[in-house]
């Protein structure tokens, strides 16, 4: 089965934690810190694979995780970086945040490879935190956390021209005549269950054409397979309406065009405003009585005053097809050349708020009501914060809360009235 939509869970690798260790050598009783840095977590990367034309690979496997970075080691050993995970998708795939529907990446045009989730940065080992006042730092930086996201993959076919029309009006027959595409053709409603692409070569140039599967009323609201197919028309620059001019199934071709335009308008008004041309198909099956107005004349009278040209054709015999293709190429030449590329609206890196602060929280062995907190950022913050002012003290409290230090103190069992000691400063703890 053709698959053009998939929802998957992706997760980058967590950064490895920095290591806490000290040199232990013979005749060096007080060796300095030598904890190594943690490794970087693996990225989640999407890459265009020219050999793929569906998202079928993602229908059976839904979770993809990059490898975590390894923890740093003794003797300044750096932890190994985690392996990336590379997900191959067909060109034209749009990656969106599943919850908000916002675009993260459009894998088309020049964009052949994009990192969607970056792995966490490795934490620094305690070797980086030795200072003149703190020569034996007992803390290291934790690795950055992994990023995780549920994403929606949608394949939006890349074609210059889209064929639209109700089922059984001859779109597949037309495509097989004008291109090298070989769609499966049968006399059933909703025959075509996947977009067929073909390249048209004319004397005045070539273009890519896509047979968008048959629309029905209510398609823009998801009736039938409407939404599954309407997304493929979003990139097209010109639309060919194919109608059954002979009404072989009793349909009114004028009514059909209005209904299809209504669906396009409801789905995306911008698409409905693109240049259109009408291919009045099955003219070899038209039989009119003397004095009766032909369906072609009715179509022309209805739509040509609105600037939409009508071309009578027979997809079976090829009659009128050449003239239609020339007109389509002229319309394309008059349209903007820039392909439709969906701009990024969602930035996964924004999910990483705040930094992991390296610090330790320890209960004093002499007095269990005293909790000693140490860390380079805390020492630095105390150095330039005026704790005597109400504003400065509130700022420092906010820093402790956002850095997770207050939460860590509570985990360590601190009670109201206990003392928090930081680099010569003592604070009473109250919630």
UniProtKB/TrEMBL annotation:
Biased composition (Basic and acidic residues): 65-79
GO BP term (any one): ribosome biogenesis
Residues at which Mg(2+) binds: 172, 192
Cofactor(s) in the UniProt record: Mg(2+)
Catalytic EC class: hydrolase
Record-annotated OBG-type G domain positions: 159-333
Residues involved in GTP binding: 165-172, 190-194, 211-214, 281-284, 314-316
Primary location class: cytoplasm
Domain Obg, first and last residues per copy: 1-158
NCBIfam families the record matches: Obg_CgtA, Obg_CgtA_exten, PRK12296.1, PRK12297.1, PRK12299.1
Entry similarity comment: Belongs to the TRAFAC class OBG-HflX-like GTPase superfamily. OBG GTPase family.
Protein name: GTPase Obg
Gene name, Swiss-Prot/TrEMBL: obg
């Amino acid at each position: 089965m053709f698959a053009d939509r998939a929802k998957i869970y992706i997760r980058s690798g967590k950064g490895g934690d920095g290591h806490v260790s000290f040199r232990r050598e013979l005749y060096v009783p007080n060796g300095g810190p030598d904890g190594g840095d943690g490794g970087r977590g693996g990225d989640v990367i999407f890459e265009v694979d020219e050999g793929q034309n569906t998202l079928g690979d993602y229908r059976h496997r839904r979770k993809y995780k990059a490898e975590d970075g390894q923890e740093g080691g003794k003797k300044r050993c750096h932890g190994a970086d985690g392996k990336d995970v590379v997900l191959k998708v067909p060109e034209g795939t749009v990656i969106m945040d599943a919850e908000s529907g916002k675009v993260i990446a459009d894998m088309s045009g020049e964009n052949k490879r994009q990192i969607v989730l970056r792995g966490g940065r490795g934490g620094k080992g305690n070797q980086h935190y030795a200072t003149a006042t703190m020569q034996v730092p007992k803390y290291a930086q934790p690795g950055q956390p992994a990023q995780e996201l549920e994403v929606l993959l949608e394949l939006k076919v890349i074609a210059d021209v889209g064929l639209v029309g109700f089922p059984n009006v001859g779109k597949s027959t037309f495509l097989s005549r004008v291109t090298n595409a070989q769609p499966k053709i049968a006399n059933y409603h909703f025959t075509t269950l996947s977009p067929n692409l073909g390249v048209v070569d004319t004397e005045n140039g070539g273009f890519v054409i896509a047979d968008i599967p048959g629309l029905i009323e209510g398609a823009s609201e998801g009736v039938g397979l409407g939404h599954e197919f309407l997304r493929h028309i979003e990139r097209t620059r010109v639309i060919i309406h194919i109608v059954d001019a002979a009404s072989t199934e009793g349909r009114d071709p004028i009514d059909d065009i209005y209904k299809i335009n209504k669906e396009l308008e409801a789905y995306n008004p911008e698409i409905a405003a693109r240049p259109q041309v009408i291919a009045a198909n099955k003219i070899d099956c038209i039989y009119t009585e003397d004095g009766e107005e032909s369906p072609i004349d009715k179509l022309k009278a209805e739509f040509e005053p609105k600037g939409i040209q009508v071309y009578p054709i027979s997809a079976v015999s090829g009659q009128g097809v050449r003239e239609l293709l020339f007109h389509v190429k002229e319309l394309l030449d008059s349209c903007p050349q820039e392909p439709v590329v969906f701009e990024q609206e969602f930035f996964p890196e924004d999910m990483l708020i705040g930094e992991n602060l390296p610090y330790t929280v320890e209960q004093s062995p002499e007095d269990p009501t005293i909790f000693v907190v140490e860390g380079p950022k805390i020492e630095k913050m105390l150095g330039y914060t005026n704790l005597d002012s109400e504003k400065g003290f509130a700022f420092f409290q906010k820093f402790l809360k956002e850095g997770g230090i207050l939460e860590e103190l509570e985990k360590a069992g601190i009670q109201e009235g206990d003392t928090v000691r930081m680099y010569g400063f003592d604070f009473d703890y109250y919630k």
